[in-house]
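PROTEIN DATA CARD
Card holder: UPF0149 family protein
Chain length: 203
Origin: Neptuniibacter pectenicola
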Amino acid sequence: MSLENVPVDLPDFELVANMFVEEGVRVVSPSELHGLISGHLAAGARLQPTMLLQTACELLDIEALSHESSKVTLVNLYSASCEALESLDLDFEMLLPDDENEISQRADALGRWCQSFLSGFGLYGKHTDASLSSEAKETLTDLGQIAQISIELEELDENESDLMEVQEYVRMAVLMLFTECNKALENKEKAFAQVEPENSRLH
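Structure generated from the sequence above:
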């Protein structure tokens, strides 16, 4: 399966949730899957389709995806997330239940998203990188605290406003981490490209 010619719109939360039902996934939410993918991308990792499917199946605790449509949805989710993070428009969005759901459900999904983001970020080893700025390290600490968010929230305007504020903070935090880690990666690649021709000359 190729990443080419795959739509880059972020799949709807309910679409991914229905895919989980079809695949027999019971213990993981769409938000957790998207958080893991986003953490990988923010840390500088890039997964080929085969590895992406394998990583997703490990998270979902299944042997393999049974339906071709599920594979397309997963690759679509990955491609859309990567493109949004790389975009200069700052239009990255997290895969969370829409506003019609209860606030406690949305808060729980945000906490799970952050927890999985940190797992994905950590799998790449970036969370222990001494080169991370102090701001990035503080941001990771903040995300860790948000991952423990209380889900026992009443349907109050104040709580709704607070949740939206935290959600926006997380969104911008992810973009900041992506920019820092991927810029460092890009600089390394450029430096390597400049050195490589010199070293590869025949003498």
